[in-house]
């Protein structure tokens, strides 16, 4: 299960991803809003979607705002979330392979629908490599817990 959410700036792209990617490919999704182009602040959608990931209702979140930056900052404040703001294919792939990212963020004012769908597709279909990368992801999570990870 994947949860998708946006603010007002990301709303039209969120709708397009739902229609032309999730529905056409039979992908199960939760639409955590917003539900109209009326002003809706990105921190609200970020927290709502990320809470669903942490609660186990979804495996991953797709988050869209104007730049992708604000919504990724908010998402990364939710404990357990590793959100990556990506506007290129390589980063969207490697943030799964190396960072085990569980939220992908991008900006509707930065990427077009075609690229956005490629980003979502590679993000959802790439597995974490583990190994030495697991050690590094663990270090990130230890920082989140307030531990000092450097000598
Ligand atoms: C909304 O105008 C815009 O600030 C927001 O979508 C996002 O780009 C913030 O990072």
Chart the SSEs and their pairings.
Blueprint: E1 2-6, H1 11-23, E2 29-31, H2 42-54, E3 60-65, H3 69-75, E4 83-85, H4 89-97, E5 103-107, H5 113-124, H6 132-144
Helix pairs in contact: 1-5, 2-3, 4-5
The protein binds D-ribose.
Protein architecture, described:
The protein is of the alpha/beta class and 151 residues long. Helix content is 44%, strand content 15%. The protein is built from 6 helices and 5 strands, in the order βαβαβαβαβαα. It has helices spanning 11-23, 42-54, 69-75, 89-97, 113-124, 132-144, and strands at residues 2-6, 29-31, 60-65, 83-85, 103-107. Helix 4 (89-97) links the parallel strand 4 and strand 5 (103-107). Helix 1 packs across helix 5 (113-124). It is globular and about 50 Å long. D-ribose (RB5) binds at residues 7, 9, 42, 65-67, 69-70, 107.
Q: What is the gist of this entry?
A:
It is built from 6 helices and 5 strands; from the N terminus they run E-H-E-H-E-H-E-H-E-H-H.
Strand content: 5-15%
Order of helices and strands: EHEHEHEHEHH
Give the neighbour order of strands across the main sheet: 2-1-3-5-4
Q: Would you report the number of β strands?
A: 5
Low-confidence stretches: none
Largest sheet: 5 strands, parallel
- What structural class is derived from the secondary structure elements? alpha/beta
Spatial shape: globular
Determine Rg (CA atoms, Å).
15 Å
Overall mean pLDDT:
98
Question: Could you give the distance between the termini?
Answer: 39 Å
Ligands, deduplicated = D-ribose
Q: Give the helix tally.
A: 6
What is the share of helical residues?
A: 40-55%
């Amino acid at each position: 299960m994947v949860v998708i959410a946006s603010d007002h700036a990301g709303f039209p792209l969120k709708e397009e991803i739902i229609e032309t990617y999730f529905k056409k490919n039979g992908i199960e999704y939760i639409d955590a809003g917003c539900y109209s182009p009326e002003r809706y602040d990105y921190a609200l959608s970020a927290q709502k979607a990320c809470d669903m990931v942490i609660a186990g209702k979804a495996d991953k979140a797709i988050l869209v705002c104007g730049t992708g930056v604000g919504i990724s900052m908010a998402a990364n404040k939710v404990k357990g979330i590793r959100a990556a703001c990506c506007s290129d294919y390589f980063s969207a792939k490697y943030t799964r392979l190396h960072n085990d990212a569980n939220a992908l963020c991008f900006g509707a004012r930065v990427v077009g629908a075609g690229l956005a769908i490629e980003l979502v597709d590679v993000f959802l279909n790439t597995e974490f490599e583990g190994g030495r990368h697991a050690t590094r992801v663990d270090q990130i999570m230890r920082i989140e817990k307030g531990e000092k990870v450097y000598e």
